[in-house]
Design a protein that fits this description.
The chain is α+β, with helices and mostly antiparallel strands and 212 residues long. The protein contains 7 helices and 8 strands. The chain is globular, with a radius of gyration of 17 Å.
C-alpha cells in the first residue's frame, strides 16, 4: 500500500514538472549530431495525423540497448529492457524538501547519506542495500547535476524482464550533457549486472519511436 501511495505521489510530481507541448523540430539537428557522434541512427516518427513528431535513438551497450526518446508532448526519456535475474523494484523521484517533508514522518523512505540528494529526492525500494550500492557517488552526482526527474526499475516476473526508465527535463541542448547522461546509464547497467539483478542476455525487442 505504501509503495503504491508513494509511487502515485511521485507520478503526480513528474506530470506537473515535465508535461507540456514544445516543438521538438527545434532539437532535430541536435539529435542528428548526437546520433552521428554516437554512431547510431536517428529515427523520426509522426502520429497518424502528422501533427506531432517523435525523435528516437538506440545505443547498444554490453548486450543491452538504451532507447532515448523525446517528442512534442513527452520529455526526454531513457529506457532499457533487461532479462531479469532478481526481482527488484526501485523508484527515485525529484520532489524537493516539501515533498520529502510530506513523507518523512513514515520513516519508510531510503536515504543515501548525501544531504543535498536526500533533500531533493524521495527513494522507495524493496531492497535498501541494493539501492545504496546502485546509487554510487557518480550516479548521485550526475542525477543531481542534471536534475533527473525520476529513475525507476520495475520487474515483470511473468515475462522474466526488468525495465529501467529515467526521465529528464525539456531543456537539454548540449552534447556534453547528453554524453554524461548516456554514460550515467552505462554505469547503471554495469552496476545492475555487478549486483546480479539482471542477466547479460540480450532481449529480442524491436525498439520503436515513441508514440504520441
Amino acid at each position: 500500500m505504501y509503495y503504491k501511495k508513494i509511487s502515485g505521489f511521485l507520478n503526480q510530481v513528474f506530470v506537473t514538472q515535465t508535461h507540456g507541448y514544445i516543438d521538438i523540430s527545434q532539437k532535430q539537428d541536435f539529435w542528428k549530431l548526437m546520433g552521428d557522434d554516437l554512431n547510431v541512427n536517428l529515427k523520426i516518427s509522426h502520429n497518424s495525423g502528422n501533427e506531432l513528431k517523435s525523435l528516437c535513438i538506440c545505443i547498444p551497450y554490453k548486450n543491452q540497448v538504451i532507447k532515448i526518446t523525446e517528442s512534442d508532448t513527452k520529455p526526454l526519456k531513457f529506457e532499457v529492457d533487461f532479462v531479469y535475474k532478481l526481482d527488484s523494484e526501485l523508484t527515485v523521484g525529484s520532489v524537493g524538501k516539501v515533498g520529502r517533508f510530506l513523507y518523512h514522518f513514515s520513516g519508510k523512505t531510503i536515504e543515501t547519506g548525501i544531504t543535498k540528494f536526500d533533500d531533493q529526492y524521495l527513494i522507495e525500494s524493496k531492497d535498501k542495500s541494493m539501492t545504496i550500492c546502485l546509487l554510487s557517488n557518480i550516479v548521485i552526482d550526475t542525477m543531481f547535476k542534471h536534475n533527473v526527474y525520476s529513475l525507476s526499475i520495475s520487474t515483470n516476473s511473468k515475462k522474466k524482464t526488468s525495465k529501467l526508465i529515467s526521465v529528464f527535463g525539456r531543456n537539454i541542448f548540449e552534447m556534453q550533457t547528453m554524453k554524461e547522461l548516456v554514460h550515467l546509464h552505462f554505469i547503471i547497467i554495469e552496476k545492475l549486472q555487478e549486483l546480479k539483478i539482471i542477466k547479460m542476455d540480450m532481449l529480442n525487442i524491436v525498439h520503436k519511436p515513441e508514440t504520441q
